[in-house]
User: Fold Urea ABC transporter permease subunit UrtB from Mesorhizobium qingshengii.
Amino acid sequence: MPPKPCSPACANASQVLPDAMDFVVTTLLNALTLISILMLVGLGLAISFGLMNVTNLAHGEFVTVGAFAVYFVQSMGGSFWLGLAAAPIAGAVVGCILEFAIIRHLYSRPVSTVLATWGVSLILQQGLELTFGLGAKPVTPPIEGTLDLFFTVYPAYRLILIAVAMLTLLGVVLLISRTSFGLDIRTVIQNREMAEGVGINTQRTYAIAFTFGAAIAGLAGGLVAPLAIVLPQMGVNYLANAFFVVIVGGVGSIGGLVAGSVFVGGLTSVLNYQISPSLAQAIVLLAAIVAVRLRPNGLFNGASR
Assistant:
């Protein structure tokens, strides 16, 4: 006897599970994309703010410079990958100039650093606006298609972004933990006077670390450029979220950076499905304040008190 045909109710029920899995997988991948972007932007800020105790309000402009580097290369006929290679170089150049001209003279004056870097951020925004003009700049991703992930289809470029971010994070962890330069950074952070006493050039170490952080932020800008609106003011939003990530996760810790990125990026992605982005951002800010109140030293390395 042939099986009875499925009733409409049965057919609808059989469709619920695939639809639910599609929603869950897509939400998780969207969250992972945002987490990856925040990790890269926050990684550069964690070096300057978390490790060097420099409040750099121009850090978001390193992201902007990276995005505009990709746009410029593509507008000149170059490929996206060439532009992506130029993005961290552009960020590093701007960061090196900023550290040499301003930051190194203000390490012992944190308030002056805040004011100076805020002014630099405005100068960079206006400079980009005068150079490239008003309006959003188009950046074409290297891959336009999607990949079939069994339960859903997802843009291939976003998966590339996630992979590059994870590899970059792994590379930074190895650099900090396995190289002599990483040892110098950790020594200077723990005790600058002792580091100078054993012959470490602390000024050079700070300069290289700050430039390296700017390069990572530039790479983040290059990666996010095909997904974002490339404007001279685009770095402002990434600056605020990067500070959330570093402070909530735990200052001076790679594990804290990951925890903060998951907290901010995951919560933002989930809320964006339910409410407007502006309200979601406000709720994330409130949640970050509560998290810092409950764990003042960060989610990863802070003890509740």
Remarks:
- Residues 1-7, 9-14 have pLDDT under 50 and may be disordered.
- Strands lie at 146-148, 153-155.
